[in-house]
Design brief:
Shape: globular
Helix content: over 70%
CATH architecture of the largest domain: Up-down Bundle
Structural class: mainly alpha
CATH superfamily of the largest domain: MFS general substrate transporter like domains
Number of strands: 0
Strand content: under 5%
Length: 467
């Protein structure tokens, strides 16, 4: 009895620690959007550079997630998690001391490295610790912690930026990061490395990271000829990566996870489309509300909090339901709701009521809350234990690539309508037009995601899907 109680206590402590880490990542990611105008004024940054301040973070983590996922399977998820939270905290400390826009962007890259180590391990650690019958519940709690951070980010970030300054956002991240580090060394004693002894595919990791990085950067530079060439290089590198991975005995990414496992493949595709359609909403509405409507950072944060707040409220419910109801149905319903909320923003105007904007964000947030935990449960339930790290990293990669692709679409549209200039009153109307065009594109992407979600089929829980 005492041993079982100790085991349950350890599980709860790990859940608390993971919840704090995912809250931190959500908070930092959303609060920086509200601070962008203040950062732009201090460092005289144009709209595209401000976009890169946001974009380099998911871009960096995206290209490193799969390699770190494989490293976690081989050398231990706890170890990689520890390196990740320490890197994340250190980069937040240095970001708070930035003296130029370039320095801030470079430190956001370092923060992305730490985030990659966190994102690739939090889900796999939870999946390793909790059995299948409890998995949906804890994944729902974890998702809610991300969205709690996302919901509090705009509100607290707006208050901090308005009354103390944008640097205080990073100082707050430092405090939370230190708390996670202390809890990790105090409570998490175990290690999970089901692929221990396997060889790490260095060549495949390098080709993968360079190819994905080139593809994402190239997309952000379109429609320039330079962007086209970089995208082409990324595609060629991707083809070389696929050929290499099919020949090595211990690949960084087992391609059979996609070829022989439709549940895994379509769940990841649905995630990619969902994140690509939703991540830039906060970025675009932050610019619209502060520039076009003239709202303060703290008032803007109060408005933007509605979407992640709905996600945080309903994600635990969706997670629990996914333990009993087919995840495909819950996730597809969530995707449909998000599509409806995005469609409402297409008609955004100079005098659109705040109630209308809040309603669209609430519907999108409700849909996102019902999509993510069941979709995550579907991915993690479709692979063997020795693939948990790579599976979690693959899903996290879909998220980060989706984030980056979403920002690339937004920045492309802004560069077409505004160009590389500082946003002044004469361009406020163009900000509104850019936002409307982007929401049309995002609605189409999310609508396509409904069909990808439905195509996954029923989840075969606990069965080995990759060999």
């Amino acid at each position: 009895m005492r041993k079982e109680q100790g085991k349950n206590l350890s599980k709860r402590a790990i859940l608390v620690m993971i919840t704090m880490a995912t809250f931190l990542s959500g908070f930092t990611g959303s609060s920086i959007n509200v601070a962008l105008p203040a950062i732009g004024r201090e460092f005289s940054m144009d709209a595209v550079l401000l976009g890169w301040t946001v974009t380099v973070y998911p871009l960096t983590s995206a290209v490193l997630l799969i390699p770190f996922g494989r490293l976690a399977d081989i050398y231990g998820r706890s170890r990689i998690f520890t390196y990740g939270i320490m890197t994340y905290t250190a980069s937040s400390f240095l970001s708070a001391m930035s003296i130029s826009g370039t320095m801030l962007i470079l430190l956001r890259i370092l923060q992305g490295v730490g985030a990659a180590m966190l994102f690739t391990t939090v889900i796999s650690i939870l999946t390793s610790v909790f059995p299948a019958g409890e998995r949906g519940r804890v994944l729902g709690i974890n998702t809610a912690s991300v969205y709690s951070g996302l919901s509090m980010g705009p509100f607290l970030g707006g208050l901090l930026t308005a009354h103390i300054g944008w640097r205080s956002i990073f100082w707050m991240s430092v405090v939370m990061g230190v708390a996670v580090i202390l809890l990790r060394f105090w409570k998490m004693k175990g290690e999970w490395a089901e692929a221990k002894g396997a060889r790490f595919d260095i060549a495949g990791s390098i080709i993968y990271s360079l190819s994905l990085g080139a593809l994402i950067i190239g997309l952000s530079l379109l429609p320039s000829s330079q962007g086209v060439w970089i995208v082409a290089a990324g595609i060629l590198g991707g083809l070389a990566f696929i050929r290499l991975e099919s020949r090595v005995s211990s690949p960084v990414l087992n391609l059979n996870l996609f070829k022989n496992n439709p549940g895994f493949a379509f769940s990841n595709l649905a995630a990619l489309l969902n994140y690509a359609a939703t991540y830039a909403i906060t970025f675009l509405l932050s610019l619209y509300l502060q520039y076009t409507r003239g709202f303060s950072p703290d008032r803007t944060g109060l408005i933007l909090v509605s979407m992640p707040a709905m996600q945080a409220i309903f994600a635990p419910l969706a997670g629990r339901l996914s333990d009993r109801i087919e995840p495909r149905l819950l996730a597809s319903t969530g995707m449909a709701l998000t599509t409806a909320g995005l469609g409402m923003l297409i008609v955004l105007g100079q005098d659109t009521s705040i109630g209308y904007i809040l309603a669209s964000l609430a519907i999108s947030g409700l849909g996102f809350g019902f999509f993510t935990p069941p979709n995550t449960n579907s991915v993690m339930s479709s692979v063997e234990r020795n693939y948990y790290g790579v599976a979690a990293a693959t899903l996290a990669t879909m998220r980060q690539v989706g984030f980056t692709f979403s920002m690339a679409i937004a920045m492309l549209i802004l560069s077409i309508h505004i160009g590389r200039v500082e946003i002044t009153p004469e361009y406020y109307g163009s900000v509104l037009v850019s936002a409307r065009v982007a929401f049309i594109v995002f609605t189409i992407l999310c609508f396509a995601g409904i069909f990808a979600s439905l195509a996954r089929g029923k989840v075969k829980r606990g069965e080995a899907q990759a060999h």
